[in-house]
């Protein structure tokens, strides 16, 4: 799944969009140092849906995950997770770089039987010879276990310097991913001011906004001044009424609830979160996620258009794009809404990812529009949203032959004419 600065993932129901996001969620969860043995217990925010054995496609007993970063070196992570005797195990994991001969490390001695001990060969940056090994647990991502120089032999100075830095880089890169699929009912409650992490369902919204909004004494200082401006810009043009400010109700134990000041028909009033519309709460959650995400991280927002009027889609996307550029964020959105696709900035259209089920084997496929053969031929037929709603996009991607296929068809046609004895003139 290629990711641009603003990537919109589209596709029919059951095409596989949630599977792709779930794979990202699993990578992020592993980067936080969790053990595979605890995945079945779920918790407040379950990592995967259904039973653990349902992770595997069509009766197979392993699957692979990985990512490519934009770093200059050691930019490819891949791992394979397998199912053995009712438990999950990491069977293989490596970090390497395209064109490189020796990986940074490679789990090449998987555990056997009831054991969870695995052997990892690491790069000692010496020519030739067998690479040294360290023992790790196959219940955790290997890169979460190689972040200390003490893991490597004392004489391997470069390994001690390089491998922990790369390991921590992947930990930060993946654990910082923010996932958001807001549930308005969870955002209408008070939250404690020390809860500054927005949960995936939007819980803790009021306390996160309280932290971002700051105090009146900080209102003219950075970053509070910019954060206040961005929050208001996100929500001001979405509802019909004018939003002019935020404030917070405070409970006896330090809990807070956000209020919006709205003006409608010449009347001004304060409305707290318990009375705000679903759409307004969702937009507040999106603003909170974008402003609280670590700079340079990936923000994943599912079904972003839920509760947002189609006429407001362009403004919402424009605010997302602007804030993503300012904070160097990458944003991945999923949607079914044609109006939102029609509101996409022209620069974001090539990065749209279409998700569909392969007619031959039923597996989900992800294809970026810019990688589709003859995509200009598709886009001249109308706005992207209309192409999706009329089924033209789906048929074009699944059935349209690429240039190479057309050349092969032309050669086959010419060959058939020659065999039939007809004269061929070009």
Task: Please give a structural write-up.
The protein has a six-stranded mixed sheet with strand order 8-13-14-1-15-16, with helices on both faces. The chain has a six-stranded antiparallel sheet with strand order 2-3-4-5-6-7, covered by helices on one side. Strands 9, 10, 11 and 12 form a four-stranded antiparallel sheet that branches. Among the domains are: 51-175, no CATH class; 178-292, no CATH class. It has 426 residues and is α+β, with helices and mostly antiparallel strands. It is globular. It is built from eleven helices and 16 strands.
Structural class: alpha+beta
N/C terminus separation: 42 Å
Q: How many H/I helices?
A: 11
Major β-sheet annotation: 6 strands, mixed
Overall pLDDT metric: 89
Q: Name the strands of the widest sheet in spatial order.
A: 8-13-14-1-15-16
In which range does the helix fraction lie? 25-40%
Which runs of at least 5 residues are low in confidence (pLDDT < 50)?
none
| Range of strand content | 15-25%
Radius of gyration: 26 Å
Instruction: Report the count of strand segments.
Output: 16
Q: Give the H and E element order.
A: EHEEEEEEHEEHHEEEHEHEHEEHHHH
- What coarse outline follows from CA principal-axis ratios? globular
The multimeric state of the shown protein is single chain
